[in-house]
Amino acid sequence: MDGIKLIGLCGVGGAGKDTFYETVLQPRGFIRWQMTLHYKVWLAATERYDWDDIFYNKPPEVRKVLQDEITALRYEHSEDIWLHTFASWMRAMHEIVGLHVIGIAVTDLRFLVEMRGIKAMGGKILHIVAPDQQANIAPELRGHRSETEMNSPEIETLRDAYLYNEKTSLFFLRNQGDIILQDWGWL
User: Fold this and answer.
1) CA angle 120-97-116, nearest 5°?
2) Which of 51, 78, 153, 155 has the fewest CB atoms nearer than 10 Å to its CB?
3) Are 15 and 108 in contact (CB under 8 A)?
């Protein structure tokens, strides 16, 4: 991971993590990663759910399965299974696939252990909050640990930057992102 700009985007569902990536980071050559990308691909490959529902539409049924099954694997293996999986994928992408990137954006940080791990890898954490976050998340899913852990006071000590996503315009979001990246010396 030496020389690679690593950023973890944390926030509850609906905060705008994917939008921040698409608006600010993707145009600058960052690739998007999700801690559970391989599991989502597996769900699609086994045809349990439609690709678009897993990655884009995210209906409550799919979100519930992802919450339950991914959390069960966390409890079965270890708290940091997804962090170790991410590190292994990054090594495989570099050594086996031969991919050399400017930066990696992990767009689905939801757990403190993963934030600590990204920091230990030399990465930065951007905490994104929005006024209407979780508006499209089913109420029964909001109490899951993957949503509630974002309320921990430890986030304030882990994050390198905070962004209040007003969701008024992509121009505003891009400007706020530029300020953060400049502060980090990435622009």
Assistant:
1) 10
2) 153
3) no
What's the sign of the alpha-carbon dihedral 49, 54, 57, 60? positive
The C-alpha atoms of residue 149 and residue 143 are separated, in whole angstroms, by: 10
Amino acid (1-letter code) at residue 186: W
- The distance from CA 6 to its chain's CA centroid, rounded to whole angstroms, is 12
What is the 8-class DSSP label of residue 162? E
Other beta carbons within 10 angstroms of residue 185's beta carbon come to 7
Tell me the whole-structure pTM to 2 decimals.
Answer: 0.84
φ and ψ at 124, to 5 degrees?
-115, 150
Mean pLDDT across 65-77 = 85
Q: Region of 167 please: left (phi>0), alpha (psi -120 to 50) or beta.
A: left
Q: What are the pLDDT digits (tens) for 94-151?
A: 899 998 889 999 998 888 888 999 999 999 999 998 886 655 655 665 566 666 677 7
Q: How far apart, in Å, are the Cα atoms of 33 and each of 110, 144, 183?
A: 13, 22, 23
Strand partners, 10: 109, 127
Q: What is residue 185's predicted lDDT score, i.e. its pLDDT?
A: 95
